[in-house]
Design brief:
Helix content is 42%, strand content 17%. The protein is α/β, with parallel strands linked by helices. The longest helix has 17 residues. The protein binds ligand FO1.
Length: 310
């Protein structure tokens, strides 16, 4: 069994690579739920849905979120009634949110209704919300706190961020399914999702970080930090909030004690010494993933590298 920790669009591509190269029913994906939102009375879990649509082969190819070929008639209707429609929900996507909202209202857990959705989409992997409890990423810009989707979608992640909080995380509990996925993992992979917006919320759920730290299995991270772009982009600015530089070596320092190895881009090979000094192994390879073949290759190299660390 392989267990991956994953956010939305960026990380789900590598999760797809892992899914494609592994035998069926041998991948668990623990997914961030701190960017969930309630909109028009519906519970929306963007990262869970992005992972499910990606593994289910129906994700919108260009954007990475939403469903390929979806239409937006319901959204136009909501616009007619004067509702805010900056968060673009397609018609088929809407069915997912209606199903989830109804199931939660009937007392089902997020874990159980996600399992139902994934199985109906034909997915032979476990897609696991990090917790069934409510956690919400909030970001401080100037003197205003924004909800995650207000920052990310409405403001197009263009504002400078002074602080990040995962509201509710201290009281959240990891699900049994998440703890079992970590316990039974032969390899644990922190995929190349945004560390601050996607991976840290998962690690902040009390018990998850400790379970990974205590795992005897090899644990590896795939770095999303590549060359100069990670230093100048918004992901870099967020990374600086953690007190670490926006580089793969900075990420290795952030994940210290949690990982045995890191996969970084060949462009950043010169950071190898700094990372190895932290007693973290390094695989330098081409981590830019444009095609399914790239994702399969990085996934396969990551698993091979992790197994070599045992
Ligand atoms: N991202 C956007 O940039 N604009 C949108 O209108 C938008 C709508 C949306 C609807 C459903 C869904 O599951 C995801 C959606 N996303 C949208 C993506 C999402 O907000 C982000 O990619 C993740 O939350 C970040 O990981």
């Amino acid at each position: 069994m392989i267990t991956a920790l994953c956010g939305g669009v960026g990380g789900s591509k590598l999760a797809l690579g892992l899914y494609r190269i592994l035998p069926p029913d041998s991948l668990h994906v623990i997914v961030n739920t701190a960017d969930d939102l309630e909109l028009w009375g519906l519970r929306i879990s963007p990262d869970l849905d992005t992972v499910a649509y990606t593994l289910g082969g129906i994700a919108q190819q260009e954007l990475g979120w939403g469903i390929e070929g979806d239409t937006f008639h319901a959204l136009r209707g909501l616009e007619t009634y004067g509702l805010d429609t900056w968060f673009r929900v397609g018609d088929r996507d809407l069915a997912t949110h209606i199903y989830r909202t109804d199931a939660l209202k009937r007392g089902e857990s997020l874990t159980s209704c996600t399992a139902h959705l994934a199985s109906r989409l034909g997915i032979r992997a476990d897609v696991l919300p990090m917790t069934d409890d409510a956690v919400a990423t909030r970001l401080l810009t100037g003197d205003r706190w924004l909800d995650f989707q207000e920052y990310f979608v409405r403001e197009r992640h263009a504002l400078s961020i002074d602080d990040v909080r995962y509201v509710g995380v201290e009281a959240a509990r990891p699900t049994d399914a998440v703890l079992e996925a970590i316990r039974s993992a032969e390899v644990i992979v922190l995929v190349n999702s945004n560390p601050v917006l996607s991976i840290l919320p998962i690690l902040s759920v009390p018990g998850i970080r400790e379970a990974i730290e205590g795992s005897p299995s090899p644990r590896v991270a795939v770095s999303p930090m590549i060359g100069a772009s990670s230093v100048t982009g918004p992901a870099g600015a967020l990374m600086r909030l953690t007190g670490h530089p926006p580089t793969s070596a900075g990420l290795a320092a952030l994940y210290r004690n949690l990982i045995d190895g890191i996969v970084l881009d060949s462009q950043d090979e010169r950071q190898r010494g700094e990372v190895e000094a932290m007693r973290i192994g390094v695989l330098a390879t081409n981590t830019i993933m444009r095609t399914d073949a790239d994702r399969d290759r990085v996934a396969a190299e990551t698993i091979r590298f992790a197994r070599s660390l045992r």
